[in-house]
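Practice problem: predict the structure.
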Amino acid sequence: GGGDGGGGEGGGECEGGDKPAAEGELSPHVWAVPYVLFASSVCFALGSGMTVKFFPLFFVNDCGLAPAQVQLIYVVVPLVMAAMSGLGTRAARCFGRAQVMCGFKTAGIGLLVCMALLDSWVKRSAVGSSEHTFRVAVVAALYVVRTGLMNCTYPLEESLLMDHVPKSARARWKSLDSISVFGWCGSAALGGYLADRYSYSTTFLVTAAIQLAGTALQIPLIFITRKAESPAPRAAEGGGTTAPLHAAPAGPEAAGGGGADSAGQ
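Answer:
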């Protein structure tokens, strides 16, 4: 899902930010930003890979949905991701990119935990009954919103990375995405083992724990980039220490598993 482009237009929606920091006022730890983003992306890739391939099976085997009904869910997912990407970009202008990244991902992880805990609740209802339909609809809604929240921060992460690495090194840092993709694919084997040995809900909980660790890694970015983040003045003045928020493709979770994931992310 893409975010709203542009740093100049529409940026005045949120007022009251600090003035952009002068070069000497920036945190001395800004060098760590790309390393933190890379480490967290590996965590999200490992966690997402464990579950993204198994969500359709979860809906078929545990929720009793027909394949056509499962695909309807995946029709809705990219629409929600696109809407939330725009929401995340606007929120970042008000609160800062790192704050929105951590907040949205924490909410998405919470919804994944809810899905895992509600698995037995769904199974206790008779397939085909109105009660079962309602319970499955609740779980499906949680999944759609959770997927949107986990993936919609990808444009923010990309813009934050590009703002804190030299132009000459950007290609090198982007090439490290292949490591995350490898982890995303490799962890699917572990996810399959856990699903067969225990249950889908167990796999969801393990994924949530890994992704929570990835979110915790991003928390320092709130303090490292706080002085450089000045959404409203940057939009009004057309510049600042950080670049405008540009749209970017959806995260790796959206690339696999029935057309969209996530995850995390």
